[in-house]
Design brief:
single chain; alpha+beta; FAD/NAD(P)-binding domain; D-Amino Acid Oxidase, Chain A, domain 2; 3 domains; 4-stranded antiparallel sheet; 10 helices; 18 strands; binds flavin-adenine dinucleotide
Length: about 375
């Protein structure tokens, strides 16, 4: 059976659905092909931060891109709510990074100073000694040696975001096909691509955006992309629901809208293994109690692991295939934070519109072929 569409997005995670929404707004007929439930899906296991501090300290283009996304979030959440009827629980109260290690505190403070140079007035942040931050939040533990605070940081409910995006894409007229795992992409004579799925079914598309998360490990080389994505495991915990309000939002401890305290996130290079481990989750719990001793009496309900999708340098890749310009690759870490950009400015870039943003710093030509091999 053969199906036709203007533009096909491969991957129905937060990134693929955001991109699809932007393309639909731009008037395209869009089909999203999304793999199976058992796939590795960062969009179902992440921490939900909409976070600016620390991003792009050594890569100003990324600092600016993230700053633009964070600024766009309130309007994006409102639009998403209008289309989908769902509230993604966006809050942007400002957020902390807490440190229990002097060296890490000094290093991060240095990074923040660099990021501030890049963003000038757009990074309202403070660096606070342990004493200063305890004056502000008296329940913090004595192990906290320092903290940084950025008034623009926030969070959402990432599962609601995923569902809202899916619903919005459908309501805007997009077709989302689930359990379609694309195995093979072949350029067709005269333009376009033939997509063969795991069941052997063929679909044809004029243009294509590859947003398959870790699926890009096998699909991107088929289109001549040199970007290599790799998995990086993060582990997280969630506690029982609390009636009381957590007195802060931080990058490692946040209260989700249902009331539980979510604690994260570790980093480990362990290939495609997304299991959680007792050693890492115990370390997370220790860190949380060091920061906020009152958490010692709160029960942990669940722990899980999920795989980040990392490029060679950790920054997004927005690239057109060198061999097939009708195919784009879109991949990033921080797809929650960047969702408004992916649903907005990026669509113009994919379309090649004259008012598209300058995204050259995110092209894959920054990777040497030797690094990509
Ligand atoms: C532990 C952890 C914490 C994180 N915390 C944050 C955070 O606080 N803030 C933030 O902004 N970001 C965070 N992230 C990153 C964020 O979750 C990701 O950037 C985002 O979810 C990536 O979305 P995606 O759509 O690219 O990938 P995925 O969610 O992995 O989706 C890829 C989709 O492609 C489909 N697919 C794969 N291969 C194929 C194929 N061959 N054919 C068809 N479909 C295919 C899969 O089924 C899947 O649905 C975190 C990630 C992790 C793992």
């Amino acid at each position: 059976m053969t199906t036709q569409t203007d533009i096909t997005v491969i991957g129905g995670g937060i990134v693929g659905l955001s991109v699809a929404l932007g393309l639909l707004d731009a008037g395209q007929r869009v089909t999203v092909l999304d793999g199976a439930d058992g796939d590795l899906r960062a969009s179902q296991g992440n921490f939900g931060l909409v976070w600016l501090q620390g991003k792009g300290a050594r890569y100003p283009a990324y600092a600016h891109w993230t700053s633009k996304a964070v600024a766009a979030w309130p309007e994006f959440a409102a639009t998403l709510s209008d289309i989908s009827g769902m509230d993604v629980k966006l809050e942007q109260p400002g957020g902390y990074e807490f440190f229990t290690d002097e060296t890490e505190f000094a290093e991060f403070s240095g990074d923040l100073a660099l990021q501030k140079e890049a963003l000038v007035d757009d990074l309202p942040c403070e660096t606070l000694s342990g004493e200063a931050v305890r004056r502000r939040i008296p329940s913090l533990g004595p192990a906290v040696v320092g903290a940084t605070y950025c008034a623009r940081d926030g969070h959402v409910n990432p599962l609601l975001l995923l569902r809202a995006l899916g619903r919005a894409v459908r309501r805007r007229g997009g077709l989302v096909e689930q359990s379609v795992h694309v195995d093979q992409i072949s350029p067709t004579p005269g333009g376009g691509f033939a997509l063969r799925d795991r069941q052997g079914q063929l679909r044809h598309t004029g243009r294509l955006v590859l947003c398959a998360g870790l699926g890009a490990m096998t699909l991107a080389p088929q289109l001549g992309f040199r970007t290599k994505v790799r998995p990086q495991r993060g582990e997280l915990l969630i506690t029982e629901k609390l009636g009381s309000h957590l007195p802060f939002l931080s990058s490692t401890i946040r209260q989700v809208n249902e009331g539980g305290i979510q604690i994260g996130g570790t980093k480990a290079e362990v290939g495609l293994d997304d299991n959680d481990t007792l050693g890492k989750t115990a370390g997370l719990a220790r860190h949380a109690v060091d920061v906020l001793p009152a958490l010692a009496s709160v029960s942990v309900l669940r722990s899980w692991g999920a795989l980040r999708i990392m490029t060679g340098d950790g920054y997004p890749v927005y690239a057109r295939s060198p061999d097939h310009p009708d195919a784009c690759l879109v991949t990033c870490h921080s797809g929650v934070t960047l969702a408004p950009n992916h649903a907005g400015a990026l669509a113009k870039w994919i379309e090649g519109a004259s008012d598209a943003p300058e995204l050259d710093p995110f092209d894959e030509h920054r990777f040497k072929i030797s690094e990509a091999a």
